[in-house]
Amino acid sequence: MTWAVDLIKGLGITRGIILLFLVGLWILATLATSLPLTGLFADCLIRTGMNGVLVLALVPAVRAGVGLNFGIPLGIVCGLFGMVTLMDMNIRGYSSLFGAMVLGGGIGALAGFLYARLLERVKGQEMMVGIYVGFAAVAGASIYWLVAPVKNPELVWPLGGAGLRNTLVLADYYSQYLDKLGAIPFGTGYIPTGLLAFWLGMCGLLALFLKTKMGTALTAAGANERFAEASGINVTRMRTIGVILSTVLGAIGIVIYSQSYGFVQLYKGPLLMAFPTVAALLIGGATVRNATITHVIIGTFLFQSVLTTSLPVVNEIVAKGGSEFGNIPEIARLIISNGIILYALTRKESA
């Protein structure tokens, strides 16, 4: 068991325990269920790439000293605007996919600037205010979805011909385009090469930015505000850039999430997406004042893999046991997902 102890020490207690729990789930799936391990692992990779950019979006805000950006639904709403606009114009394929990223990112840059102005007025309370900003953005967008001047009949309610549907289907637009791009068959599933490559590419671009002069100044402003000001760094400007980058990446992240999921979820869909996103980053080893690309990669994989693996395993075991309580898997999902989020939030100072 020496290797296990060394592994936990290398990863940290939090990540080591969760990794051992994940390995235990894989072993349980192999021994106690008929679920193929290759399929489960492939699903873990898909979910990791699917949520990766959203977790990455938190890094600029943390590095700029704003803290964990619970206002990420603001960026998500901007991405939804981009997707709906391109779909209403009946643009399909990669043009629609990347067009939605560009349009959503542009709207996100403007929204991020306004959001940063607000956060400057509430210094020290950014995370609490961010939660309310996210909720307000989702509520405001929900009103817009009801009155949006959309003409595409695939998007509006069939009765009345007005108001966007709760869920928009991407099958004829760009559903799983990145997932299937260069996909490698792996047992009963596949490795989403294109999706993972895009995510890792975004991670690489952000890592390169953080090594530039502006990125170094942004990190310095977040690490020690007084020292940064004494060095001639405009702290307010750096914080604004961090929030804008976070919001833009949030807009791009929801486009990637939706194309992998195959649907666009409007109205209350983005309402609580900040919490699992923040939890994944914290599980990866980040704190309120420090987050790295490594934290993003490790945290996203661990968090999404535990959720992806545990639910079908519990469902299979319950089905084999002949339980009459059909809602046990749903209860297990709530316990596991919220339990991990709660545990991650308790580790916000040190992981």
From TrEMBL:
Keyword Transmembrane helix: yes
GO molecular function: transmembrane transporter activity
Keywords: Cell membrane, Membrane, Transmembrane, Transmembrane helix
Compartments, as annotated in UniProt: Cell membrane
Bilayer disposition of the protein: Multi-pass membrane protein
Gene Ontology cellular component list: plasma membrane
Keyword Ribosomal protein annotated: no
Protein's UniProt name: ABC transporter permease
Lineage of producing organism: Bacteria, Candidatus Eiseniibacteriota
